[in-house]
Amino acid sequence: MIFREVEDRDLILRAREGDVDSFNILVSRWEKKVYNYILRAVRDREDAMDLCQETFLKSYRSLGSLQDPARFPQWLFRIAHNESVSLFRKRRFESDEEVPERGTGGPVGIAGTRIQHLDLGLAVEKALASLSPEQREVVILKIYYGFKFDEIAEIVTSPASTVKSRLYTALEVLKDVLAPVARPHGVEVREV
Fold it and tell me: Taken in order 25, 28, 30, 35, is the CA torsion positive or negative?
């Protein structure tokens, strides 16, 4: 991990000096992670691809503003976060009503319904969709990407206490939503 950070740092320093190949290596290392993060936030593949490209364009243009190359992941995810938020704002501005999510047929609510014969991964994705965007983002950054609370706070520009609260609330919701998936059909679970 330390070796990787040193490599990223060297690539960042070279890219700042105009070495496009060094930046392209950074893109190849981080593109899949950033794309998946954005995809989970916006839940549309085309939008995620567009926002991922925009994230890397903006990061290239403002690489000189990155004060500490060791903080590159948080800085990059912050740009991706801002791009996602901009898309949500644009959609809200374009319509007075809540915009249904493209490609999903609208909001997905699975609480209280019996989920049968679904792949667990699909069930988790649908459960994530039941969270507010703020909760979903914190869960993704913590669980999928392993960011620490203070790093998430930096990315989403909220206090660490708010990040913790969102995460723990979201985990309770996910536990309730996913409980029917974890139980065999017809088996009741009683708390003692």
Answer: positive
Residues comprising the chain, all counted: 192
> What whole-number distance in Å separates Cα of residue 34 and Cα of residue 49?
10
Would you say 143 and 163 are in contact if contact means Cβ atoms under 8 Å apart? no
Q: Each residue of 128-180: pLDDT tens digit?
A: 888 998 999 999 999 889 999 999 999 999 999 999 999 999 999 988 888 76
In angstroms, rounded to a whole number, what is the distance separating the alpha carbons of residues 34 and 29?
Answer: 10
Instruction: Outline where DSSP puts E strands in 22-147.
Output: none
Q: Which amino acid is at 179?
A: A
- Between the CA of residue 86 and those of 17, 79, 89, 100, 145, what are the distances in Å? 30, 10, 5, 16, 22
d(CA 78, CA 85): 10
DSSP 37-69: HHHHHH--HHHHHHHHHHHHHHHHHTGGG-S-G
State pTM to two decimals.
Answer: 0.68
